[in-house]
Amino acid sequence: MQKNIYLGVDGGGTKTAFLLEVDGKRYESKQKTIHPKQVSKEEFFETMKEGVKEVTEKAGVKPEDIAFTFVASPGYGQYPATEAYIDEGIRKALGSDRFKVANDCVNGWAGSLNAKAGINLVLGTGQIGYGVDEQGSSMRSGGWGPLLGDEGSGYDIGLKLLNIFTKMSDGRYEKTDLYGMIKERLEISDDMQVIDLAENMKRDQIADLSKLLGEGLKREEKYSTMILEDIAKEAALVIDSIIRGLNFKGEVDVSYSGGVFNLGDSLIKKIEKNSSYNIKIKDPYTNPSEGSLILARKFDKE
Does the reported pTM lie above 0.85? Predict the structure, then answer.
């Protein structure tokens, strides 16, 4: 009997999740990021190969047995020169052309809204928004990368925290609990050490500093509150631009993915307040990895 076998790949700025479904049973593999600006072509090929190999071996099937695969590739559509080898690497790993690849904002939307009309906002290592209206038209906003954008992302928060630390260190800002929290997290004894440390930190390491924001908010630390306001304003700008660009009817469903949303209602309520439209932010239907599986099944039937 032919099995129903689908593979969803969720590529993020920090890691890549492979989720294989065989007749309802799930098999997973976690690999490093496949972001084209963080890994080489060869590393991309190897990561795809290892991820596919691990889940298929766990399931006792072959890559060519997979009916359809959806790959969410971070940065896809932003760096045209990388798209040919991304497609090639996926094709080699699967041994077939039965796949579709798109930016990781697409599976974020599919997972958070069960591939139904609405907007998904990603605030993870990076930032991007993606929406689909009732007519099936789609649009993305944000996602300009760490140099030009990513406002409200973990990376952006991490940079803000480092900048605030320097201002507290030299007297431009008042020293608060946040000063000691950052210094302890970075394990530095001399404030000037932060210069060399920051210059050698990778994108995901800077983004990891954003976890301090939640503790700062619990302590009602004023600079943490300031950052929260900035995140909410930037998030609302992304959402509102998509609403203006598409054709939604009435209240717009908005959902989300990414670690920044671990801040919870304190962030969600501020985003709703900052939006110029009638939006309702709802908990995700499921996660982005499941979103990739939803899309694999969807595209197989088209």
Answer: no
